[in-house]
Hints:
- There is one protein chain.
- The chain is α+β, with helices and mostly antiparallel strands.
- It contains 9 helices and 9 strands.
- Strands 3, 4, 5, 6, 7, 8 and 9 form a 7-stranded antiparallel beta sheet that branches.
- Strand 5 (267-271) and strand 6 (276-287) form a beta hairpin.
- Helix 1 (5-41) packs across helix 3 and helix 4 crosses helix 5.
Amino acid sequence: METNDGLRCEASEAVLDRESSAWSHFLAAVEILLLTSAVAAAIPRTAATRASEPVLTASVRASHVASILQGAGTTAPASTLRLGSGDTASAGTSTYSGTEPLRSTPSLAGVADIGAPVDTPAQAADSPVAGTLSGRTRAAPEAEAVRTSDLYQPGVARYQDPDFTACTAASTESMLNTISVDGARDGFTWKRTTSYATQESILAYERDHMTMLVTSAGTDPHGWRNALNYFGWGSLAAGVYQDAAYESFDEAARATVIALATTRKPVGILARAGGHAEFATGYQVIGADPSTGSSDFSIVGVYLTDSLGSNGHRDVWTTYTQWRSGGEWVRFSPYLQTDSPYRDPIDGRVGRNEWYGRWVIIRPVR
C-alpha cells in the first residue's frame, strides 16, 4: 500500500530549507550592522559630534534587521543581539608626565591596513567622511580604504623649556627617541634619553653645522637635518634625513604622509613661517596605501607634536583644514626666514634660496 512518507519527507526538507534561508538572511543582516558599527567607530570625530549622534539601541538595531529581512520574505528570531556599549605636562618640564589617553585598535572588516593603535583626540573638527580632504571637498566612497597610522609613544618626547631657542634640538631628541622605540636597524646609534643636557648638546651641534647667520638664535633646516643624521646614525652625511621644500601646502602634506608611511620615522615640520619646529608622527588618509609610495589618497589629518611646553601639544590630532589654515601654532605656513645665506656642503644649495616662500619639511628617505 502506498504511503505519504515520501511527501512528509519532502515537506520537512522544504521547511528546513526555508528556516535555513531565514537564518542565512538574518546572519547576513547582523553582519552588515556589525561592519557599519566598526567602520563608524574607527572614524575620528569630536566629543560634541559623539554627543549629537543618535544612540543605536538594541530595539533600533532589531528594527533595522527586520527591515532588511522583510525584503527577503523572512522574519527575525525573537532574540536579538545587543551590540557594544594627553598627555598632560606643565610648561618648563623636561620629561613626560601625566596620563596617556586610552587607545584602541579599530577592527574594520573590508577596510585595509589600519596601522598602529590610535586614539582620536577631541580636537578633531572635520568629519573624515565628508568635508575638506587634501584640499578638495568630497564624500569618501564606501569602497575606499581608511588608513590610519601613528608612531607616537608616551614618555619619549620632551619639551624644550627653559631654552626657548631649542625647538629643533628638543624635536630631534624626541624624534630619535620615537625611532628607537620602533626598533630601527639601519645603523641607528642613538640611545634613548630625554635629558636637558642632551638637548643642549644637540643645539650646539646644530649651530656648528648650519648655514644660518650666527647672530640669529636657534638653527635652520640644514642644522636640524644634520643633527638628526649625526646623533641618529653617527655621520653628518648619513643621508637618512633630508631637507625638502615644496611649492604648495598640499605637496608638502602628501610628502609628509608618504615619508611617514614608507620609512616609519617622524617628519620634521618648519612651522610659523620657518620660525618654529614641530614634527608629525601619524596620519589618516582615505584611498591608496601611502606606504607603497602612492599619492592617490585624500588626507583627513595628521598627528603633531610641538616642543614648546606652553602649547602642550603632544600627538595632537590636526585635521587637514586646521593644518593648512588654522591657528598660528598649528598652521603649516610657507618659510619666510632669510638669514641662511651660506651654501650647504651636503646638498650644495643656499638655504634662503631653497626654502623661501615654500613649505619645508625634514623628511626621512630610508
